[in-house]
Amino acid sequence: MDKRIFILVGIFLALLACNAGASTSTPTPDLFATLSASTPKPANPLDTQPAQTATSFSLATPVMLTEVVSTPSSKDLPTGRIVFTCQLFRVQASNQICIINADGTGYRRLTTDDNKQHYYPSLSPDGKSVVYAAFREANFYEIYEMDLATGSVVQLTNKLGNLNAPEISPDGNHIIFKTWSPNTDKNVLWKMDRDGKNADKISRVVGWDPTWSPDGKYVLFASDMEGAIKLFRMGINGKDLHRVSDLPSMRGRSDWSPDGQFIVTYSGEAWHREVYIMNVDGSNARVVSPTGGNSQGPSFSPDGRWITFTSYYDHPEDDHGCEIYIVRVDGTDLRRLTNNDYCDYQPRWGP
User: Fold this and answer.
1) Is residue 169 part of a domain?
2) Quick one: DSSP state of residue 317?
3) Do the domain assignments include residue 45?
4) How does pLDDT run across 220-233, given as a tens digit for each residue?
5) Cα→Cα distances 127→60, 241, 249, 304, Å
6) Structural domain of 285
């Protein structure tokens, strides 16, 4: 009996020794494994989607940047909402307008006409409404304003031409936008009262994708008036025109930081575009988007600490692969907000 007890005790001690060396570590997932974590999607795109959560991840090779501002603390979380164009039906002719909270929750569709193209949304300075352009008939897009609390929509223009990129002034009294007509075949910047009255061109210079300076005195826009597309600044009265940046292969939609000290824009050849941040005079331009995503269409957060943009990190070179991302202004803490099987793009951040 004593011999059997001795043998059992010996076996028990041997098992303890084996388990003591067992590892409990878990491998860190790589970039694409992290990106593959999907968020819930409804069976019917007309329904409001369940709450989504922002996905955070780190790139294998960090982007080295000159510091723009001091890096915010980890407690400085993104706030506000982002409105954007959502290609629910995977065709541009049926583009819709959607909105999401900056933390990735509250995703919902705003527009309801499945058979009309809606695009170029932006939030009002008080965050209570969104303006956007929508197709009316051949060569005519109109500008609309939607009250976010009630969903009611007001048409602000009437057959001025092909209009897009509307944006409400910081004081809430005016709207700037781009118009094109087949008679002139030119893109020109216009301004009108908030209710759509007194619409007229700002100047005769060619331009598109306008955005207000924080003080409402200037407009930043893209133009090919000198040949290649460049970024320009002009007084809202049509005077004081200056070229801001000579970045090669510039595209369009840009934004001012809320303090007026910085500009974000995007540049690059097709499928190789990056988001740039620069001083308001165009100096010290540097890439802020982690490379390799074909990033574009940036917009500052209301506190100036984050940037939202469209990118294709999930599905490179897939026409339906663009999603909405945010990143801190120093290029760190990249987060994906949307994860759909269609393109989400043209984001604009607001309160």
Assistant:
1) yes
2) T
3) no
4) 999 999 999 999 99
5) 36, 30, 33, 16
6) 55-350
